[in-house]
Design a protein that fits this description.
It comes from Coprococcus aceti. This is Peptidase C39 domain-containing protein. Keywords: Membrane, Transmembrane, Transmembrane helix. It is built from twelve helices and 59 strands. The longest helix has 28 residues. The N terminus is likely disordered. By secondary structure, it is mainly beta.
Length: 905
């Protein structure tokens, strides 16, 4: 018995010593830490969907903060005239949730109706919400539906989709067409002649060729085999989330997003995130006509006499037999599939000495490497990785969903990252901006500043700035500038370069009233430059700011000159000097066809001299050749590409291009990227390494922890716009932002996109124009008989056409025609300067008059057109005038196609 007691005592003593030792070791190891660390959290907010028959559409992620609704264009849901809608919330985590809804104007500032919702329990853990709008919603007008969730423990989130009332959008047929095409891309053994893909490819009239990134981006111009994955034979492993992005009576943009997996004969598995975009039109076409085919019959069954007068030929009252039988015609205007492979740490290729990044939809890869090339930090699919060649380790620094690719919540990547600094020891500073997908800020929009300690594998949040700007709009600014010098954090958002003092927790700004294009930033984000005015002719000063040293330098123009910043080569700023008087000189646009001269450079004043200055403001290069002007300067990797012109009586005309090259140190090998298809049979992107490094071992994986730091700073920044801007949305979301609607529309045409104003109005979307139209009978003529008063006369006629009673004095107080239309009218006025005549006639096709400047500077009103001629009312002559389209185009060119109109709600 005594022996048993002694053994028990010994055991207890040993346990006590073990506990004390662990306690002391824990104190010793963490003596320099203020806080403990915890694993990064997974996403918790439930997802919501629109129920459409047996399908779920328009997946919605929850927002827990304020959102600028005019910039949120994730999806649109068409509803019939009964105004009923069913929402399903995937609610396994939020128990005892209560729900309500709001219907708001598309700008979000006007509440149409609101109400509480009773949730019915559905299958598979869904809460089912039936919404029946009570108010009279105007047909074809978009509204914002807000579904609000509040959990039993007080957590809340809001879900958004646009809604529009129309029974004739044919969304069912358009969705089925997209699904049939999607399914056909996985019918790997089907012949092209038997597939719907073959039918759509035959009808495809779009330009371009297959993309250069292999399977990373394919479209209807690609070979049929590429559309069928060229033998990769992937399997869909997640739900196929389908979104209606845009829709009207004859046109829809549909997105499908899903995750896929492929496996090789060697059992190598690869995972992909895939986005498909369908632009589809619907049209009822005649299949039988009751009219006899005779000379003079139009293709639409309407007769006209080619010898008749303009009014006789295009009268709204002409008699015609009607077509009684039609059938639906669905046309695939475009199809684009973007594939991005998830990074796999096992992708070391020892034979070729490369590290696989994967199939990519774009070469735009964010990465940094250390001076000795031993460490690489890079961003892929919402994940931040760091590879350490020396220690044979790889670390997932930030991000989730590594082993759960089918999880829509954890893999939602509506955010991006900038690597701010990366030192030789593997420590890193980085910024995350956009929608926060998990953690303490889940559901919020904003910018977060983090540090990563490689020794402890801890990620520490230093600052979170919450904002109301959705990711699509935020990335156009914030992606270009985030920088931390140890004391201040700089970032661009809301048309400002903002600076947060980390000690005082106070925010200020360096410059304001800037568009993203006004600020130029070096690749390492340490140096930036901006002008004093968006108008180049008024831009007589450039400010160069070196945020690394905290010093600023000003460059000023001589009298009669102005400045333009073209960008940075590494940390060196490139700028040009122009004569202000050259702003009035025309450009012979035809002579620049086939050159790099772009639509975006149209407003730039050609420069006669070019300078390069370093980050300390010291001039290191001058370029000037007598008689030659720089129309556009492109900063490429190792050269400046100079698109040049010379001045003549007809304006600036194209001459041979020129170059400024930069000598690189060819003896110094560094980390790079390259495309290779010989290794796996498919074009993939790879990291290349210097020849003295040998990639032979698959690195060990590290997972970071998030430091729990009560000293982290948080603040809220609400962006309030002080001017109307125009946003171009292409396949992948918000592409560019413009100050002039005409510039935005021209760019949207080139990328088959749409234009939305910052007030939420759709300014432009692809649509068929009528072959002819007239609104002349609805225009009340007004003439004061002078060129100077012609703009006021046209504004008076347009406002009267809208049903607004105005006086001459009302109009006289405005110098800006857009401001006059917005302040006095019922519709949103827009500056469509720069649009071609064909584009302007699209407004007249929709019954909207266009104010246009011609000849001696007078303003006229375009009121009618056919395939050969246009008719305009001239308030100086007080009469309607018919001229050919070519003649009118020449008259417009004298004033750079200056034009104004408005958009319907």
């Amino acid at each position: 018995m005594k022996k048993k007691i002694n053994v028990l005592v010994r055991i207890l003593v040993m346990v006590a010593i073990f506990v004390v030792t662990i306690y002391l070791v824990n104190i010793f190891q963490n003596r320099s830490y203020k806080n403990l660390a915890a694993e990064m959290k997974d996403a918790e907010l439930p997802l919501a969907y629109v129920c459409y028959g047996d399908s779920l559409l328009n997946c919605m992620h929850g927002y827990t903060g304020e959102v600028d609704l005019t910039l949120l264009r994730d999806s649109v849901t068409p509803i019939d005239e009964n105004k009923n809608l069913e929402i399903m919330v995937e609610n396994d985590a939020f128990k005892d949730a209560s729900y309500s809804y709001e219907i708001r104007s598309i700008s979000g500032d006007s509440l149409i109706e609101k109400g509480d919702l009773e949730a019915a329990s559905g299958t598979d853990g869904y809460d089912v919400l039936d919404i029946s709008a009570r108010m009279d919603l105007k047909q074809d007008m978009e509204y914002m539906l807000v579904v609000k969730l509040k959990s039993g423990d007080g957590r809340s989130a809001s879900y958004y989709t646009r809604v529009v009332v129309n029974d004739n959008y044919h969304e069912s047929q358009l969705l089925n067409a997209a699904k049939d095409f999607h399914d056909a891309t996985f019918a790997f053994d089907k012949l092209e002649s038997e597939s719907v893909i073959g039918t759509y490819k035959q009808e495809y009239t779009g330009g371009g060729t297959g993309d250069s990134y292999g399977l990373g981006h394919v479209n209807l111009a690609n070979a049929y085999s590429d559309l069928l994955w060229d033998g990769l034979k992937p399997t869909v492993i997640s739900d196929v989330n389908t979104y209606i992005k845009e829709i009207d009576v004859n046109y829809a943009v549909i997105e499908m997003e899903y995750k896929a997996m492929s496996i090789t004969s060697q059992d190598v598995m690869s995972y992909y995130t895939v986005k498909e975009f369908y632009k589809i039109s619907y049209k009822d076409v005649p299949v039988a006509s009751q009219t006899d085919e005779a000379d003079g019959a139009g293709t639409d069954g309407i007769y006209f006499d080619e010898t008749a007068s303009y009014d006789e030929a295009y009268s709204d009252e002409q008699d015609a037999d009607t077509v009684t039988e039609t059938e639906p015609k669905i046309t695939m205007l475009s199809y684009d599939r973007y594939v991005d492979e998830y990074f796999d740490k096992d992708g070391i290729d020892a034979i070729n000495n490369v590290y696989e990044i994967g199939i990519v939809s774009s070469d735009d890869l964010e990465y940094r490497y250390t001076e000795d090339n031993k460490k690489i930090a890079f961003v892929r699919n919402g994940q931040l990785w760091m590879y350490d060649y020396g220690d044979g380790q790889i670390t997932l620094v930030y991000g989730s969903g590594m082993d759960d690719h089918a999880n829509d919540s954890n893999t939602y990547a509506d955010h991006d990252m900038n690597i701010i600094s990366f030192d030789k020891d593997g420590n890193m500073t980085f910024a995350v901006y956009g929608y926060m997908n998990s953690g303490d800020h889940e559901g919020k929009l904003g910018v977060a500043l983090y540090t990563f300690d490689y020794t402890t594998l801890e990620v520490d949040e230093l600052l979170f700035v919450e904002c109301n700007v959705p990711y699509e709009a935020m990335k156009s600014e914030t992606s270009r500038l985030t920088y931390y010098d140890g004391d201040k954090f700089y970032y661009m958002l809301g048309g400002k370069v903002n600076a947060v003092d980390m000690k005082t927790r106070q925010q200020s700004y360096i410059a304001e009233g800037l568009s993203a294009s006004d600020v130029k930033v070096s690749v390492n984000m340490e140096v930036m430059a901006y002008g004093e005015s968006e108008d180049q002719s008024s831009n007589t000063k450039l400010t160069l700011m070196n945020m690394h040293t905290g010093k600023s330098y000003e460059i000023t123009a001589e009298a009669g000159e102005c400045l333009i910043c073209y960008g940075f080569k590494d940390s060196d700023m490139v700028y040009g000097v122009s004569s202000i008087s050259d702003a009035q000189v025309d450009v012979d646009a035809e002579s620049f066809v086939g050159t790099r001269y772009s639509e975006e450079s149209r407003d730039n004043i050609p420069a006669s001299r070019l300078y390069i200055v370093n980050s300390d403001g010291e001039q290191i290069k001058e370029y000037a050749k007598s008689g030659y002007y720089l129309m556009q300067v492109d900063v490429d990797t190792n050269l400046l590409y100079l698109t040049r012109g010379e001045k003549s009586d007809s304006g600036f005309k194209s001459v041979d291009d020129d170059f400024i090259t930069f000598k690189e140190d060819d003896t110094k090998e560094t980390i790079g990227t390259t495309h290779l298809s010989s290794i796996t049979g498919y074009d993939r992107l790879y990291f290349t390494v210097p020849s003295n490094m040998y990639l032979s071992y698959i690195p060990a994986l590290n997972i970071t922890k998030e430091k729990i730091d009560p000293d982290a700073a948080s603040m809220i920044m609400t962006v309030v716009r002080d001017k109307v801007t125009y946003h171009v949305y292409d396949n992948l979301g918000l592409s560019k932002i413009y100050d002039v609607a005409g510039d935005a529309i021209n760019y949207a045409v080139s990328v088959s996109g749409i234009v939305v104003s910052s007030e939420g109005e759709v300014i432009y979307r692809q649509a068929e124009s009528q072959e002819y139209n007239t609104i002349a009978s609805g225009i009340f003529h007004r003439s004061t008989g002078s060129v100077d008063a012609s703009l006021g006369d046209c504004l008076y006629m347009v406002l009267t056409y809208q049903g607004v009673q105005v006086t001459e004095d009302d109009i006289a107080q405005y110098t800006d025609p857009v401001e006059a239309l917005n302040s006095l009218g019922k519709r949103q006025g827009i500056d469509v300067t720069g649009l071609s005549l064909d584009m302007l006639l699209g407004y007249v096709s929709s019954g909207i008059p266009v104010i246009s400047r011609i000849s001696d500077g007078r303003y006229v009103l375009i009121v009618s057109y056919n395939e050969a001629d246009i008719r305009y009312y001239d308030p100086v002559e007080d009469k309607e005038i018919v001229v050919s389209r070519d003649e009118y185009t020449d008259m417009m060119l004298q004033w750079h196609n200056e034009s104004y109109t408005y958009v319907e709600e």
